[in-house]
Amino acid sequence: MTTTHGFFIGCALGLISATGVADAGALSGKVALQFGPYVHHWSPEPEHNNAPWLVGLEYESPARWIAGASWLRNSFDQSTEYYYVGRSWRIDAISSRLYVKVTAGALLGYSGEYEDKIPLNHKGVALAVIPALGYQVDRYNAQLALLGTAGFMITFGMDLFSW
Question: Phi and psi at residue 10, in whole multiples of 5°?
C-alpha cells in the first residue's frame, strides 16, 4: 500500500468514527461487496471501455455513513482505483428498499494522454463525486451511479455481513 492509499483510507476511517451513531435507531452496520459490469457513455467513442469490471468493498455505519474502495478498468482501459467516503439516505416515502447515495473521494488512474478526460485531475489523481440511486432486497442491491458528463454505471452488490 502506498502512502497516498494509506492517507485516503485513514481519512475515511477517521470520518466514519467521528460521525458517531446518533441517528442509528434500529439500523445496523454492514460490509458489502460491489460489482460493476457495465458503463453506458453519453457520447460513445470506439476507444471507450464499457465493461469496467469494478470490484469494490464498502463499509456502512449504523448512521449510514460510508467508506469504501473500488478497483476497475476506466473508460480508456487503464487500471483505476476509487477511495471514498459518503452517506446514504433511504427514500421511505416511495419504498423502504429505495435509497440515494453520494460518495466523494480520490480517483486514481486517469493518466498520460487521458489525464484531461476528467475534471480536477492532476498527474492521475482526481477528486470524484458520485451520486447513485439504489434498490436493496435482503442482502442484495442494484445501483445506478451517475458518472458526471461521461455516463452511468450499473452495479450489483451483496452484504457480506452486518451487525
Answer: -60, -45
Residue 10 CB partners (closer than 8 Å, separation 6+): none
Closest CA to 19 of 89, 104, 87: 87
107 is written with which cell numbers? Answer: 480517483
The CA distances from residue 28 to 25, 79, 92, in Å, are 8, 33, 17
pLDDT(13) > 70: no
Opening angle at CA 152, ends 19 and 10, nearest 5? 30
Which residue reads 451517475 in cell numbers?
146
Q: What is the pTM of this model?
A: 0.83
| CA-based nearest residue to 65, from 23, 5, 9, 128 | 23
Q: What is the pLDDT of residues 31-56, one digit of tens each?
A: 999 999 999 999 999 999 999 999 99
For the record, the C-alpha cell of 61 comes out as 455505519
**Cell of residue 59, nine digits:** 463499509
